[in-house]
């Protein structure tokens, strides 16, 4: 057994993302206009009340929250190659969506919301970390010990995390 | 001597076999690792391709903010005034207020004419509120100006002043309702002099030359500043925001109270409560 530090870091970052997206979703549905944000809250309120704050009628904050929860679920289940790929795929999707929203902020609205930037940075770190973790795989670490105990290798793949 | 030499020879042969086996195993492992890496890279490339296609589709679907409001005289523009008349025709207007001055309850609506969420409210919950409470004389609605979606302060000042100037002829709500119905895509720069004139031309009975001269009235700039200050005092920095109260005692109406901007049910409950207070 060895500690999967990238996984722990991913879980911690995703939990922060869930908190951040929960706040923005709450603000959206509660209609709170005193959104905590730089420049007196004006820019965040503009972004949050813009036409791009919804996608097909669904608030993007809620889409983000669902995304973070899905990523968290993929990290909390028993880990194997498929779940590590799933985490990478979900974070790649989240990164792409964050890139789209950042594009809208910068080029369509010309307003920056600190909360959205925070989420975009978080999603970028999650994507880089999860893709690196998936590409690294489990084989190199396991194969170092493998020649002495070849029979234990398959079990180690599934149970080391 | 010979047995010893044979043993050494056997050992060397065994060692060579071991070595070869070990090399073969290492090569197999290296090949397996390379194949695994290739497989992972291919899978990730597939995921990236799907994400790119999805984002491009979203970009196309949400447009580049290029959709234009209906031009004056177009069928869409022709339908707007009758719709507005059906909603607010016959209701007394006074400056920025819609409804009987004697109405006991007041709803203050902070809005920005370019704000799409305000449009959502104006076309969603507002008609129901007007029908149920304003028409029977129980509620009046006061529109206050708060810049949110409009990027340029100068554009904000010009468009909101255009609406306030219609208020000098008791037609500000006609102007607001028509503007929201013909609102263009955010950030597309659709609000220009022709657009503002086009809205004014659609307001039934508006004296255009008086409206044009009223627009330069400095009192409206003071009105905008007063509205901004009142929003700031309430801690509002988004639109739409609301105040509700009876006989001038106004309180913040939070989103958690009215619930939805597209249905009047939550507003009905809050207004009923204010009436009974």
Oligomer: heterodimer
Q: Sketch the topology of chain A as an H/E string, one letter per element.
A: HHEEHHHHH
Proportion of residues in helical segments of chain A: over 70%
Percent range for helical residues of chain B? Answer: 55-70%
Which class of secondary structure composition applies to the elements of chain B? alpha+beta
**What is the CA-CA span between the terminal residues of chain B?**
118 Å
Instruction: State the helix count of chain A.
Output: 7
| Largest sheet entry of chain B | 6 strands, mixed
Most extensive chain contact? A-B, 44 and 41 residues
Largest sheet of chain A: 2 strands, antiparallel
Secondary-structure element order of chain B, as H and E? HHEEEHHEHHHHHEEHH
Distance between the amino and carboxyl termini of chain A? 7 Å
How would you sum up the global shape of chain A? elongated
- Structural class call of chain A reads mainly alpha
Number of strands of chain B: 6
> What integer is the average pLDDT of chain A?
78
Proportion of residues in β-strands of chain A: under 5%
Q: How many distinct beta strands of chain A?
A: 2
What is the beta-strand fraction of chain B?
Answer: 5-15%
């Amino acid at each position: 057994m060895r500690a999967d530090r990238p996984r722990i870091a991913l879980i911690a970052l995703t939990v922060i993302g869930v908190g951040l997206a929960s706040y923005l979703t709450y603000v959206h549905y509660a209609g709170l206009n005193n959104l905590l944000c730089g420049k007196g809250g004006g820019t965040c309120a503009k972004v949050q009340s813009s036409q791009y704050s919804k996608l097909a009628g669904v608030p993007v904050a809620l889409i983000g929250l669902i995304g973070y929860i899905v990523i968290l679920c993929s990290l909390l289940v028993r880990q194997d190659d498929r779940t590590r790929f799933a985490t990478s795929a979900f974070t790649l999707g989240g990164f792409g969506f964050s890139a789209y929203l950042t594009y809208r902020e910068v080029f369509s609205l010309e307003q920056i919301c600190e909360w959205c930037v925070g989420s975009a940075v978080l999603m970028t770190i999650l994507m880089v970390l999860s893709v690196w973790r998936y590409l690294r795989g489990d084989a190199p670490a396991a194969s170092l010990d493998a020649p002495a105990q070849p029979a234990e290798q398959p079990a180690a793949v599934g149970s080391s995390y | 001597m010979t047995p010893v030499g044979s043993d050494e020879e056997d050992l060397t042969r065994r060692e060579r076999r071991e070595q070869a086996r070990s090399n073969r195993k290492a090569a197999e492992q290296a090949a397996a690792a390379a194949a695994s890496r290739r497989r992972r890279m291919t899978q990730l490339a597939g995921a990236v391709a799907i994400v790119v296609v999805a984002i491009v589709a979203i970009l196309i679907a949400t447009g580049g903010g290029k959709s234009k409001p209906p031009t004056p005289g177009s069928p869409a523009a022709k339908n707007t005034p009758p719709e507005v008349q059906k909603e607010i025709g016959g209701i007394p207007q006074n400056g920025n207020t819609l409804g009987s001055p004697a109405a006991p309850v007041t709803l203050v609506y902070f809005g920005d004419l370019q704000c799409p969420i305000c449009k959502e409210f104006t076309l969603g919950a507002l008609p129901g509120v007007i029908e149920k409470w304003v028409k029977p004389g129980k509620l009046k609605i006061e529109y206050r100006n708060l810049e949110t979606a409009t990027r340029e302060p100068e554009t904000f000042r010009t468009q909101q002043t255009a609406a306030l100037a219609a208020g000098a002829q008791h037609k500000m709500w006609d102007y607001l309702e028509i503007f929201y119905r013909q609102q263009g895509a955010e950030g597309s720069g659709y609000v220009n002099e022709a657009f503002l004139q086009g809205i004014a031309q659609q307001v039934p009975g508006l004296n255009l030359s008086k409206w044009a001269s009223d627009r330069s009235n400095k009192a409206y700039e003071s009105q905008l500043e007063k509205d901004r200050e009142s929003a700031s005092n309430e801690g509002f920095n988004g639109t739409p925001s609301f105040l509700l109260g009876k006989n001038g005692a106004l309180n913040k109406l939070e989103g958690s109270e009215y619930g939805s901007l597209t249905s009047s049910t939550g507003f009905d409950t809050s207004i009923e409560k204010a009436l009974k207070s």
